[in-house]
Amino acid sequence: MLTIGELASYAGVTVRAVRHYHAKGLLPEPERDHSGYRRYGADAVVELIRIRTLAEAGVPLARVRELLRAGEEEFAAAIADIDRRLRAEIRERQRHRERIARLTSGDGLALPSDVVEYLDRLRALGVDERIVQAERDGWIPLAARSPERVPGWMARKREQLDDPRLAGFYLTLSQALDRTDDDPRLVELADRLAAYLTRMADERGEEYVDDTGIDSPLARLMDTLAFEVVPPARRLIALLEQRGWTGWTRLERVPPDQRPS
């Protein structure tokens, strides 16, 4: 026979917990022996371990009491339900762990992995971090709005970056970030970029130049984000419009009769 302290030790709980389970009616409280001590048998150890296990699994004590009195079939079904809930909680906690881990991974917190790879490729090319940030800030709402289209967009972006001319545009813009609006490199960049866009549109169709298909309000939001981070972009867009193209996020041809002088 065991004392209350020995019972608690064998079951892996405290004496206080044993007394609490007595008070809640979960564990029968034996009569005192002639020495004034309560003595517990092996069955009390088994019962206490069952109580502890259910309680640690998050089962309310009121429900624990019901399960201890349930028949074998009902008890087994309840245990299966508890197991399903625990497995769901484990999966959710794993997702939390992954999200917490991404807090240290910068762009990966809010963007799909293929967008992160694209941004890293820009960095590897030597593109200024401010331009990379503008790209990132634009991709966050775009990926949130149309996640199913991101793989296709990224495939197009990777293909375009394989063209040294487009990579050169990024590098030229990087060099012009700290220049004034009248910097001749912006004019040169606008000339080259307009010629490149026109050639792509003529060879592959205008949908190749811009196939995002996003609505105007979102495009304006993304343009604003870009202009805040890369101020020369606003001037570049004005220069492009004179050369037949308009837009930053969503590129469109400007008819000759509508181009600013």
TrEMBL record:
- What top-level branch of life does the organism fall under? Bacteria
Pfam families hit by this protein? MerR_1
Q: Which InterPro entries match?
A: MerR-type_HTH_dom, MerR_fam
Annotated membrane-spanning segments are: none
Domain HTH merR-type: residue ranges: 1-70
Recorded hits in SMART domains, A to Z, give: HTH_MERR
User: Known PANTHER family for this protein?
Assistant: HTH MERR-TYPE DOMAIN-CONTAINING PROTEIN, REDOX-CYCLING DRUG-SENSING TRANSCRIPTIONAL ACTIVATOR SOXR
Protein's recorded name = MerR family transcriptional regulator
Q: Which organism is the protein's source?
A: Nonomuraea harbinensis
